[in-house]
Amino acid sequence: MKLLPYGPLAVLAEFDTLAEVMSAAQTWRDAALPGVIDLVPAARTVLVLHDGTFDAGQLTAPTASTHVASTGRAVTLDVVYDGVDLENVATWCGLRVGEVIELHSGTDYAVAFCGFMPGFAYLVGLPPLLHLPRLSTPRTRVPAGSVAIAAEFTGVYPRQSPGGWHLLGRTDATLWDDACNPPALLPPGTTVRFRPT
Which terminal residue of the chain, N or C, has fewer Cβ atoms less than 10 Å from its own Cβ? Predict the structure, then answer.
């Protein structure tokens, strides 16, 4: 773990793996470190926002774990599996379309971190058979609600945007709502299931 100053009221902790990030963020969140205002995990970093009284020496590198502790919140998203890439994903993975759907929907996922746009959650737990690289050429338009996979992640596009993930289906769930607290339906630590409809 490497600690870097990030302005007067933040410290950036860099890690080698996502597993280390997830373990550190959860450990530090559970410890309720004095002076810490918020923890923002990403793929290889955790941003620690503080009130100025915080001592960065309190940040110790925990043992890496691939498990994200649940916040106790579980969300089930209804999905219509009719994505434009579904058949290609099946072919690339050596599976039938129904097997791709069963694998994707038969797994408990956890939100490791959020990013890319408000409400976009990076979910871990994708079965290794479905790990595929991002598209070589991203699409200029991915519809809101698209359920997709890339690398070891699955996620849902909260609104229409460009994107380079493989589209498996769609959901009508609202992923970001300014009127809610928190506004993100899927904040870090949330357990997620996809239910075929």
Answer: C
Q: Which of 163, 164, 173 is nearest to 197 (CA)?
A: 173
Quick one: 51 and 93 in the same domain?
A: no
133 and 80 in a single domain? The answer is yes
pLDDT in tens, 120-134: 999 999 999 999 999
Provide the whole-model pTM. 0.84
Residue 25 CA, chain-centre distance (Å), reads 13
Q: Where are the beta strands (DSSP E) in the chain?
A: 2-5, 10-14, 36-41, 45-50, 74-79, 109-114, 121-124, 139-142, 146-150, 153-156, 161-163, 166-170, 191-196
CA 131 to chain CA mean position, Å: 15
Model confidence at 51: pLDDT above 80: yes
Each residue's pLDDT tens digit, 78-116:
999 999 999 999 999 999 999 999 999 999 999 999 988
**Domain edge (last residue) among 58, 84, 102:** 58
Contacts of 86 (CB under 8 A, 6+ apart): 97, 100, 101, 167, 168, 169
In terms of domains, do 81 and 110 share one? yes
3-class DSSP state of 30: helix
CATH number of the domain bearing residue 95? 2.40.100.10
CB proximity list for 55: less than 8 A, separation 6 or greater:
35
